[in-house]
Amino acid sequence: MNEELRPLTELAEKLLIGHYSRHVFLCTGESCAAAGVGEAAWDVLKRELKEKELSLATGPDACYRTKVGCLRICRGGPILLVYPEGTYYGGMTAERIPEFVQRHLIEGQPIDERIFARNPLPMGAPDS
Ligand code: FES
Fold first, then answer.
1. Could you tell me the distance, in angstroms and rounded to a whole number, from the CA of residue 87 to the centre of ligand 1?
2. 97 lines ligand 1 (CB under 6 A)
3. pTM of the model
4. Binding site membership of 81 for ligand 1 (Cβ less than 6 Å)
5. What is the atom index within ligand 1 of the atom nearest the CA of 38?
6. Is residue 66 situated within a structural domain?
7. CATH code at 99?
8. Which range of residues forms the domain containing residue 74?
C-alpha cells in the first residue's frame, strides 16, 4: 500500500466503506430549492438513516450518504440521487424523506411519482 494513503484507508475502514449497497446524494444547493430547504431535507435524511440503522452499517440495506452542492439539474429540488440504481428524485423536501427511506431504501420500491430520470450503473467491482 502507498503509505501516504494509509490514513485515508483507515478512515474509510471506520466509515465502513466497502460494505454499502447504496449511496444517496442529496443536493443542498440553492439553485434547485430555496435557501434552507435542502439543508432541512439533509437533516431528516441523516436522522432517518441513523434511526433505521442504515448509516454506518453493514448488511443488504446499508447506505452511505453524501451532501452535495449541485447535481446539475438546478430546478425542482431538492434533487436526490441513489446509486447503483441511478434514480433521480425531484422535490425531495424534508417531509418526503421518511417515505423515501422506507419505500426505496428499506422496501426496495422506488417512488415512481417523484422520479424524473434513471441512470443505473453496472454492479460489481472492476476487473483488477
Ligand atoms: S443546485 Fe441542486 S442541482 Fe444544482
1. 15
2. no
3. 0.93
4. no
5. 2
6. yes
7. 3.40.30.10
8. 18-116
Ligand 1 near 76 CB (within 6 A): no
Q: Would you write out the chain's pLDDT as a tens digit for each of its 128 residues?
A: 799 999 999 999 999 999 999 999 999 999 999 999 999 999 999 999 999 999 998 888 999 999 999 999 999 999 999 999 999 999 999 999 999 999 999 999 999 999 999 999 886 656 54
Is there an atom of ligand 1 within 6 Å of 38 CB? Answer: no
Strand partners, 88: 81, 117
- Asked, for residue 4, whether it belongs to a domain, the answer is no
Domain count, the chain: 1
Is the CB–ligand 1 distance for residue 66 below 6 Å?
no
